[in-house]
Write a structure and sequence with these properties.
By secondary structure, the chain is of the alpha/beta class. Helix content is 19%, strand content 34%.
Length: 148
């Protein structure tokens, strides 16, 4: 039987889209939801403390928090090539900034998150699906089968 384990994470992030032709060129923030779904073999070993699980929800949480949430939560994301990057030089200015090698759109952020999570999963676990919800009605999805 194939099963997936899914966990949803919430965090706050601000960003600005450099050279964009709309309101999002200005620094603004979102309450993001990141959905992560993995698959793997259910442990069938009565001697294993994780018996009956693919992965302990707590273990998945530790991975995603370490690789994604700790960096993105309450952070200002800016394209490293933008003039806004000068904010990083302001003494006592923004204390948590990420100068990205990409335009910090939801699409690029999710790609970055998938790239951070995937190599840190246990060998028997596969990331199958990820979703980054930026607003109540706007989100980006990543599917393993679309990226083989």
């Amino acid at each position: 039987m194939n099963l997936r384990v899914t966990k949803i994470f919430d965090f706050e992030t601000a960003h600005a889209l450099w050279n964009y032709d709309g309101k999002c060129k200005n620094i603004h923030g979102h309450s993001y939801l990141l959905t992560v779904s993995i698959s793997g073999e259910v442990i069938n070993d009565i001697e294993n403390v994780k018996n009956g699980m693919i992965i302990d929800f707590g273990d998945l949480k530790k991975i995603v928090k370490k690789e994604v949430i700790n960096d993105f939560d309450h952070c200002l994301l800016l394209n490293a090539n933008t003039p806004h990057a000068d904010y990083a030089k302001v003494e006592n200015g923004f204390s948590k900034m990420m100068l990205c090698e990409y335009q910090p759109t939801a699409e690029n952020m999710l790609k970055d998150m998938v790239d951070r999570i995937t190599p840190n999963l246990p060998a028997h676990i596969t990331l199958r699906y990820a979703k980054l919800q930026e607003t109540a009605n706007s989100f980006v999805e990543w599917f393993k089968e679309d990226n083989l």
